[in-house]
Design brief:
mainly alpha, two-stranded antiparallel sheet, 2 strands
Length: about 170
């Protein structure tokens, strides 16, 4: 992530194999993709397209409305919920039946999501963007405790965190 938000590589460079991490350049950053919709170089350009006076952080993920040319949402948990059912009218069969947030499991999902969001999702950011050793240690300890907690839940051989099926908790 750079000052202008996430960097997109040019379409030409996106088609190439990325350079090894030790040798990448600005245009061959490993795993970077091109903006195939607008050809932008930075995520900030997409935010400004939606709102020219935007003055907050340029974050991902982004759910973009191609018809109205605007940003719909950039909060990961909300994007997951939007994608869970928001496009069911375009699906058929098994795909339409998939529900990552079933009513009978919502309480369990919400409880798990609360600590995963605070300790894992935000813990990664707090650790990764810590500007002091003290801030890093303050963030990394709860992160690893939460990862240990997740590992313990899954240590009985189960494939999914809740209800024996894929849910929003697993995606998050």
């Amino acid at each position: 992530m750079l000052e202008g938000g996430w960097h997109f590589v040019t379409p030409e460079n996106a088609a190439k194999d990325p350079a090894p991490a030790s040798a990448h350049s600005f245009d061959s950053f490993p795993a970077a993709t091109a903006d195939k919709l607008h050809g932008f170089g930075y995520l900030r350009e997409l935010y400004f397209k939606a709102q020219p006076d935007y003055d907050a952080r340029f974050t991902v993920p982004v759910l973009w409305d191609t018809k109205n040319q605007t940003l719909v949402n950039n909060e990961s948990s909300e994007v997951i919920r939007d994608l869970n059912t928001g496009f069911n009218s375009l699906l058929s069969g098994k795909e339409k039946e998939l529900d990552l947030y079933p009513a009978q499991l919502r309480q369990e999902i919400d409880e798990l999501n609360e600590w995963v969001y605070n300790d894992v999702n935000n813990g990664v950011y707090k650790s990764g963007f810590a500007t002091t050793q003290e801030a890093y240690e303050k963030a990394v300890v709860p992160l690893f405790k939460a990862l240990d907690r997740l590992e313990k839940i899954l240590s009985d051989g189960r494939e999914f965190l809740i209800g024996g099926r894929l849910t929003e908790a697993d995606v998050r």
